[in-house]
Amino acid sequence: MATQLSAQNYQANWQSIDQRVTPSWWSDAKFGIFIHWGPYSVPAYAPIDEVDGVYEKYAEHYENRLLTKNKLFTDYHRKIYGDNFTYQDFAPLFRAENFDPTSWASLFKRAGAKYVVLTSKHHDGFCLWPSKYSPKWNSVDIGAHRDLAGELSTAVKKAGLEMGFYYSLLEWNHPLYTKETINNWVDEHMIPQMKELVTAYKPAIIFSDGEWDYPSDTLKSTSFLTWLYNESPVKEKVVVNDRWGKETRSKHGDYYTTEYDLVHDKEGIGEQASHPWEESRGIGTSYGYNRFETTAHYFSSKQLIDLLIDKVSNGGNLLLNVGPKADGMIPVIMQERLLAIGKWLDVNGDAIYGTQVWEDKPATMKEDQIYYTKKGDALYVICTAWTDKPITVSTNSAKKVKVSLLGSSIDVKVEQLQDKLTITPPQIHPGNMPCEHAWVYKVENAM
Fold first, then answer.
1. Per residue in 212-259, pLDDT tens?
2. Confidence of residue 209 (pLDDT cuts 50, 70, 90)
3. Which stretch of 98-112, 162-176, 273-287, 323-337 has the lowest confidence by average pLDDT?
């Protein structure tokens, strides 16, 4: 794979760039951790029950809601901080005094994640590294006085996980980000800053965002990507998403993206997956920490595990977000959810990591609460609800199959007649159940 990628010389056009093969490590990883963290973590506010749209509940959009005079945000801001307190005044309060990158990396590893993506710079323009293109508006010059991106990158890589960065192509309040000066923005700020980030920290993933105002030609995205793929220190390994211009989602990039199941173009995503793709979402309603979310707004451990199963069985990855507090502490409820996923993956990871879509999967997986993945000659039958009734699986294998329940030594009876297998669930009770939430039958010699 590495030889194939490095041998290709990509040109600055989508036709050339789209020929790149997505590095297999990313497609095999299946599960990653997203982190939204910045000055917006200080107010940690967005309305939840008062609004209906997904985006309206994002706490990380706090600055833009003030700029656009959203009444819910301006009323809250005036009540708590007063009329003379600006968004920029949150930066000195973003101190990250309890941030322990080693503990974060350990948690993500125990969660079963294979990669981590940190918001190096969100739409407010605040950088979590000492960017020379954002003086006095980064975490080294103000607030934490620490290279948060660098510290986490080192810890994550030391833990054996891949490290990536989210980077916003826009900034709400930057003087160069205007129609009149957009070329200066791209040439003097955006592209040089992205190159600075890549060169300094050598990320394996770049999750770009904020691409919706301009086409990719204006943003010179293909020019940056040819540098990334041909010359950068991560040219063989790096993976990028599809957010490089207002016309590029679900059309260009190593993988396509959805968030909170919002899909811009269904081609290549979901049940008809023909291209690597990834769903991202928070454990609650927001990416950035929202202090007003309650347990009613959080997905349960069961819901998150089912979500992972659903996305992977349909050919996708899951990038699950955590929103740390401004002091660097990850809320306990988020830690609990991650550890529950990790506990399940400890038993059933064989049915998730490195798997592929089963071409013969039924269209009724969600309704049946039975999902399928495959790897090598094995088929994995993943039950999100335990059933005592026989499970029938259609297969064209002429070989004698062997069926086991992952995490259990109990014999599983199977009847094999022509193109059908009938699996009889074993007698399971709380004392011998291998795991909670979902159960996996491994069918060997199924292919």
1. 999 999 999 999 999 999 999 999 999 999 999 999 999 999 999 999
2. very high
3. 273-287
What amino acid is encoded at 426 in this protein? Answer: P
pTM of the entire predicted model: 0.96
Indicate the burial class of 391 (C-beta count within 10 angstroms; 0-12, 13-18, 19 or more): middle
Provide the residue range defining the domain that includes 420: 365-444
Q: Which is it for the CA torsion 348, 337, 51, 43, positive or negative? A: negative
pLDDT for res 2:
41
Mean pLDDT of 275-291: 97
Q: Which pair of structure tokens corresponds to residue 207?
A: 């999750």
Widest distance between CA atoms in the chain? 76
DSSP string, 305-367: HHHHHHHHHTTEEEEEEE---TTSPPPHHHHHHHHHHHHHHHHHGGGTTT-B--TT--TTHHH
Among the listed ranges 185-194, 198-207, 324-333, 425-434, which one has the minimum average pLDDT value? 425-434
Does residue 71 surpass a pLDDT of 90?
yes
DSSP output for 284-307: SS-SS--TT--GGGSPPHHHHHHH
In order of 64, 103, 111, 152, 354, the CA distances from 106 in angstroms are 34, 5, 9, 11, 22
CATH number of the CATH domain containing 138: 3.20.20.80
Residue 192 included in any domain: yes
For residues 343 and 181, give the distance between their C-alpha atoms in angstroms, rounded to a whole number: 51
Asked if the structure places residue 294 within a domain, the reply is yes
- CATH classification at residue 423: 2.60.40.1180
If we measure between CA atoms, which residue out of 58, 203, 57 comes closest to residue 118? 203
Q: Which of 306, 328, 351 finishes a domain? A: 351
* Residue 160: inside a domain: yes
Ramachandran angles phi, psi of 278, nearest 5°: -150, 135
Query: 């690597």: which residue's tokens?
Result: 276
Domain count, the chain: 2
Collapsed DSSP state (helix, strand, coil) of residue 41: helix
**Whether residue 208 is found in the same domain as residue 297:** yes
